[in-house]
Amino acid sequence: MTATALRPFVLIALLGLAACQAISPTDAADALDRQVLEAISEPSPLVTVSRTGRKDFGLQEIGREIAPGITLPTPDLWRDIRAGFQLSHHIEQKRVQQELRWLKDRPEYLAYLAPRLERHLAYIHEQVSLRGIPSEIALLPIVESAVDPYAFSHGGAAGLWQFIPATGKRYGLDRNWWYDGRRDPVASTGAALDYLSDLHRMFDDWYLALAGYNAGEGNVARARKRAHEGATFWELDLPKETSAYVPRLLALAELVANPERYGVTLPPMGPEIPFEVVATGGQIDLSVVSQVADIDLDTLYRWNPALNQWSTPPAGPHQLVVPLRPGSEVAERLAAVPADKRLHWLRIKVGQGDTLGQLAVRHHTDVASLQKANNLRGTQIRAGQTLLIPKSPAALANPIAGRGKEGSYVVQPGDSLWSISRRHDVSVNQLMKANQVGPQDYLKIGQRLTVPGVTKADTREGVMREVRYGVRKGDSLARIAKKFNVSVRDLVSWNRLSLNDYLQPGQRLKIHVDVSAPVGD
Q: Is the pLDDT of residue 387 over 70?
């Protein structure tokens, strides 16, 4: 992409005016650059420079004549995206026409996605533009996930860009008890663009790169070997899903390029990024961030869908996404929080030979506090067990491990953390914390679990998504239940099956998955 194409959105929109004059586009752009810069050279409280260096114009500036015959256009993200389109949308292809018909028949689709688009699309487009790759790529999360960071596929792919665990790991997206980088809009966008750029270098063709992103580079490479030399995407024998995937993106880009032609009104979308990424300076409790930065705790969780627990991860990434509020100076406020005030809770693993008394002394607390924090009735602990350590009086005043009346439950055949949580109206995270178990730990038949009587405000609730899973050869109810951390009993109930039913390859099953905690690979 040329330097001219990367100019701020105001100048790009004005190129049409310059083209009416009998001078070259490059000369016209340079002339307009000078006029616009001269017109805004006087200080104005309505003109700011964002963290990305882009000039943002206040609403009162829109429509003002800034030079003879030149008026500032209304900021429009769609126009910015169109300016960076580089691909042929191949509307002559039958598959693209089919996808266009689908979009035309659902003119409300993008309006439905507008709240998610407002949150993520401007940032994604900026990152795409900075790399000089086709702006069509910025629309890919609409195809992949409907711009939902909690989207979860039957194949275990997660996040805006739908990374499977193996590919996410290859591109540096950590996935652990605390955090799932596949659901991190910032980290996953960088990883996805790295992956797509690698695929483009491999195939020297953006259509094949997109196909590789969907089907895997191996499948595309093998399809090319089977085809004649120089075969294009449209001539390759690819999986059915991939054959529709690339046309779906091209149809969406064509709709954005020419909405009037297809009778669709695009939802208004400004180009300003509505959030900022702030350094936390290490692990920090989200309740501390909420208090220090004056941001509602639920809002913090909504802007940071990668977080599984009550704090940022101990090993990083040491950053948070917060809604952009001029003058809030969140990073400065967090930097001023003393080290001993940053965490209300510490999660530790019991070592060989450790006793509750020794741990209490080591962590400057007492046995009674450890028992209360971890719902322990006695003092017995075992090596490898995880415990929550209260680090401040505020922790015990508002415990995350459970408060109030507590019950217990004996694990039955086919039970899972998810099914038990639903039965007792608590979250999976609450059960894990109350019983020091992880999402991948096996539950034993007859095992007794503590069921905390906590309120929904105490911990983060699970985020449920319905997944449609296609049965594969060798699958069984038990195997599928284990993969998605659900119970066999629930699988049977959701799909009106019998425990004695045989599953057939290709059969579609409905599964309700808590995507806010890791599930099986």
A: yes
DSSP 309-334: SSB--TTS--EEEEE--TT--HHHHH
Two tokens, residue 13: 């929109």
| Residue whose tokens read 């009993």 | 489
3-class SS at 47?
strand
Question: What's the pLDDT at 174?
Answer: 94
**Model confidence at 399: pLDDT above 70:** no
Widest Cα–Cα separation across the chain = 88
Query: For residues 136, 138, 144 and 148, what is the CA-based torsion angle, rounded to 10 degrees?
Result: -150
Are the CB atoms for 273 and 126 separated by under 8 Å? yes
C-alpha angle 45/50/55, rounded to 5°? 65
Q: Which long-range contacts (CB under 8 A, 24 or more apart) does 110-118 make?
A: 110/142, 110/264, 110/266, 110/267, 111/265, 111/267, 113/142, 113/146, 113/147, 113/267, 114/267, 114/269, 116/146, 116/147, 116/148, 117/142, 117/147, 117/267, 117/269, 118/269, 118/270, 118/274
Give the model's pLDDT for residue 499: 81
Closest Cα to residue 75, out of 25, 18, 30, 8? 8
Spell out the residues 6+ positions from residue 318 whose beta carbon is closer than 8 angstroms to its own: 279, 280, 281, 282, 283, 312
Assigned token pair, 353: 């030979």
At residue 500, the pLDDT reads 80
Bridge partners (DSSP) listed for residue 277: 321
pLDDT digits (tens, 9 = 90+) for 82-116: 999 999 999 999 999 999 999 999 999 999 999 99
Distance in angstroms (rounded) separating the CA atoms of residues 407 and 218: 51
List the catalytic residues.
144
Place of tokens 């126009």: 79
**Long-range contacts of residues 26-29, Cβ cutoff 8 Å, at least 24 apart:** 29/4
Contact 277, 319 (CB under 8 A): yes
The total number of residues written for the chain in this structure: 521
pLDDT surpassing 70 at residue 307: yes
Q: How far apart are CA 510 and CA 506, in angstroms?
A: 13
Answer whether 465's CB lies under 8 Å from 501's CB: no
- Residues 6 or more apart whose CB falls under 8 angstroms from that of 495 comprise 509, 510
Q: How far is CA 336 from CA 85, 270, 329, 342, 358, in A?
A: 44, 33, 11, 10, 32
- Whole-angstrom distance, CA of residue 183 vs CA of residue 171: 14
* Model confidence at 299: pLDDT above 80: yes
pLDDT one-digit tens code per residue, 49-82: 333 333 333 333 444 455 566 656 678 999 999 9
Helices (H) and strands (E) in the chain, counts: 21, 12
- In whole angstroms, what is the distance from residue 373 CA to residue 153 CA? 36
Question: What is the amino acid identity at position 79?
Answer: R
Contacts of 296 (CB under 8 A, 6+ apart): 290
Residue 99: CA atoms inside 13 Å, Cβ hemisphere, count?
22
